[in-house]
From TrEMBL:
Protein's UniProt name: Putative MFS family arabinose efflux permease
One Pfam match: MFS_1
Gene3D superfamilies noted in UniProt: MFS general substrate transporter like domains
Domain of life: Bacteria
Length: 416
């Protein structure tokens, strides 16, 4: 254990950039399906409809859900560095194989298998940056990490504008797999190991981790209510994230925008997400995670409803930017709250459960968008539906309660 501690201290500075890079690759996956869907829907040999395209999205997200639920407990038990290596290698190889899919069935299967690795990246990365980061800065540490998620999404939207017309949609998956050639060797050489009982885990937490299943700890000792509230909020947040990133280009096309403008609006949405993350973490560290999360979900509802108004010129870009500022960081604030709410010995399991159960919302988002598009009412009713989901997210967050959040904020401030 002493050797592991020395190794961790020597490579502590590598944790944030390596985890950020891994999360950026998951950000690629967040947006790439939405970027290529307009091309897939017009691929004559595939014969896709909005409904069958939604099914492909759902299959991939089921893989992500299984991966998230499995990776957290595995990382808490066998080590987070090993879990990170396994997830990055697996989803990179399978993303590359998506470029060679011969039809929708093969493509959907590869998306499912890639999702198993993708789902494990986020809970492991969030657990590591919270363990190795500075105490009392959980909000900004989490939101800074998640800028990688949306930086990857922004880059993917930019690449889609250039790559798809110039080359083909298949090239997007080749490009998405290439960064692993650099990232995997760096993770193997520089990412420190993080095991239960290492770092900030207290003796009491170490004893509990040895005695109990880490997943069972999430519903014991007064955590049941808050766990249910976090899972519900994560469901709503990921419904918004995946629903918008999958279908925003098609919804805007239904509103009368050209394909180039619709893809540009997807880019603007994710630029807003990055700006929102940089702001949300600092606000949460200053005024409290509970107040900030409720406010962010409520603001997301407002700006999503405003997207139902067709604005001329730059107005629509400003409106989409502001929606991005609040929609995506609402979900990340939930992760930040989870990271500080549970003991370190079960942190990855708690994050994996929030992310994994939240993936049911990620599955629902594309299904809802596809159903509205199929019915011909995605604009403007899609934005009203997403606004209602954001309001439900705010209600779910209230369910965590003031006392639990206040106690944890006080503890963080004391450690700082």
């Amino acid at each position: 254990m002493a050797d592991a501690a020395v190794h961790g201290d020597r490579h502590r500075g590598w944790v944030a950039p390596l985890c950020w890079s891994a999360v950026a690759l998951e950000g690629f996956d967040l947006v790439v399906l939405g970027v290529v869907l307009p091309s897939l829907l017009r691929e004559p040999a595939w014969g896709l409809t909005p409904g069958t395209a939604s099914l492909i999205s759902v299959v991939g997200l089921l893989g992500v859900m299984v991966g998230a639920l499995s990776a957290g407990p595995l990382a808490d038990l066998v080590g987070r560095r090993r879990a990170m290596l396994l997830t990055v290698v697996s989803f990179s190889v399978l993303t590359l194989l998506c470029a060679f899919a011969t039809g929708p069935v093969v493509f959907g299967l590869l998306r499912f298998l890639a999702g198993l690795g993708l789902g494990g990246v986020l809970p492991v990365a969030l657990a590591m940056v919270n363990e190795f980061g500075r105490a009392g800065r959980g909000g900004s540490a989490t939101t800074t990490l998640m800028t990688g998620y949306h930086a990857g999404a922004v880059l993917t939207a930019l690449l889609g504008i250039w790559v798809i017309p110039s080359l083909t949609w298949r090239a997007m998956f080749v490009i998405g797999a290439l960064p692993a050639l650099v990232l995997v060797p760096l993770v193997a050489a520089r990412l420190p190991e993080s095991l239960p009982g290492a770092g900030r885990v207290t003796p009491a937490e170490r004893t509990g981790a040895a005695r109990h299943n880490p997943v069972a700890e999430l519903v014991r000792g007064g955590y049941l209510r808050s766990s249910i509230a976090f899972w519900a909020a994560s469901f709503m947040g990921l419904l918004l994230v995946y629903g918008l990133n999958t279908w925003l280009p098609e919804i805007m096309r239904a509103a009368g925008y050209e394909l180039g403008a619709a893809l540009a609006l997807l880019l603007v949405l994710n630029v807003g997400a990055v700006l929102g993350l940089l702001l949300a973490g600092r606000v949460a560290d200053r005024i409290g995670i509970r107040t900030t999360t409720i406010g962010w979900f409520s603001a997301a509802a407002l700006f999503l409803a405003l997207l139902s108004i067709r604005l001329p010129g730059l107005g629509v870009y400003v409106s989409v930017l502001l929606a991005g500022v609040f929609v995506f960081s609402s979900q990340v604030l939930v992760y930040a709250w989870v990271s500080r709410h549970y003991p370190a010995s079960v942190r990855a399991s708690a994050l994996g459960a929030a992310s994994g159960i939240g993936r049911l919302g990620a599955i629902s988002g594309p299904l809802i968008g596809g159903a509205l598009l199929g019915a011909g009412v995605a604009y403007p009713w899609g934005f009203y539906a997403f606004a209602a989901v954001a309001l439900l997210g705010a209600v779910a967050v209230v369910g965590v309660g003031r006392e639990a959040a206040g106690d944890r904020d006080t503890a963080d401030s004391t450690r700082a």
